[in-house]
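Here is one chain, start to finish.
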Amino acid sequence: VNYPAPNAAYQVTTRDDGVTAKLTAGDGGVLRLFSQPAGGRVARQVVRQLIDKQYPNAEIAYELPNAHVGYQLGYGVVADFQPTGVSTNYQLRVIIMAAVKDDLALIAVAEGPFRRFTPDFGPGPPSGANLEIAMDMAKYVESFSWKGDPVR
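Its structure:
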């Protein structure tokens, strides 16, 4: 998987199963790109279990139609949440996408402050993402590759 280069805008940490990139500029946020054994689960189950475990108070804003990860059809959601044990007066948003192939789940997670995209902020056209780090997420989600896939 491709990921942001460590520089002034990102602090990058790599592990055997993936990468975490913390956006230190703008609104901030965290982008995680990783894999885990699917254990017989489908993409929807992978995403829902991740939400239940890491974002227990999240409310799903909408499902992502036709979500793909690594050019494999999967499942994705956009959800709003408040971190547990933290008192904040602003809303946080998370986008979670996953696809499963050969019993391996590839997962992309972007989280950060909710910020409505307008003509003055965001990618230009209206977007339901309303999450600054999502503008970077898109270019990395399809960089995932599966064992045995041709080089892209």
